[in-house]
Amino acid sequence: MKFAQPIPEEVRITLQEMHMNHPTFRCRQRAQAILLSARGFSIAELWSILEVRRDAISGWIDRWESEGLLGLYDRPRIGRPSIYTGAEVNLLKTLVDEEPRQIKTAQAKLADMTQKTASTSTLKRLLKKFQYLWKWMRKSLKDKRDPTDFEREKELQAFLHQQESAGKLLIYHFDGSGFTTTPCVPYGWQKRGEAHRLPTAHGKRLNVLGFMSLGNGSLFHTVEGRVDSQAAIAAFDAFAARYAEAFAQTKIPCLVILDNAPIHTSKTFLDKRDDWMLAGVLLTFLPTYSPELNPIEMLWRKIKYEWLPLDAYKSYKDMKEQVLAVLDEFGKNTR
What we know:
It comes from Candidatus Thiothrix singaporensis. By secondary structure, this protein is of the alpha/beta class.
């Protein structure tokens, strides 16, 4: 594995200052990556923490080892001078944050306030340079969660995955999702002036309770109808039964990370913890309103928005067959 070499104390202090206070986000992020790498965090763990491509993190480490602090800064780029000053760029970002759906509104206000004009294409390129993307806006629960608990959980998960890399435990993430014959409407290539019509039908709901590791290990339990504590218990019983044989041989515990849904915190469910512990399966709960810390959430989105073919929605039978086929292939050919 690739790691940053041990860092002298005076350099570590400089990196910490850079991580905490540098005005450029990319420099702060690179400094954090080098600090964690020198502490023994693998590139896979840094990818999970920073949500940055692994090859990019590897490149940061290479540049750090060959160039030191200078390697963490953006390299000079050719091109004409920017139309806007740094303060005017910040103004543009503020205007877009206020009304993210209409760049023309920001364009008009910016022209009025700076007496400078630029095309919407130029403004879009400028925003992309500062990590803005045109993407779907999502409902969020961030304002309801405790930020201290959230950050503490991120640090804990990084430590746990480090222990997993050392062979001291296994980690699985648990969650459930429902599938119906009402399709999730994705983006797709279509001829100008034509709309691609998606099949849709009213039908039953197929619920999937899933266990997933970051190495794409998995176990899925399907439920047609209501999901309650008994359904969750049945899923955990099946998972514990499968893991018990491996635990008897290796004595390596398996930690399952799950959210605080009522069916996971009911007395009926929690009373089963001792049984699962005997099979080597332990539970730990995420802070409330923290779905970002459960990677299996990304799996559900991938299935619904990318991997299910459009003809899966013709009927409940078709949808169920396609969902089960995708789940069966997960970790084999599906990426």
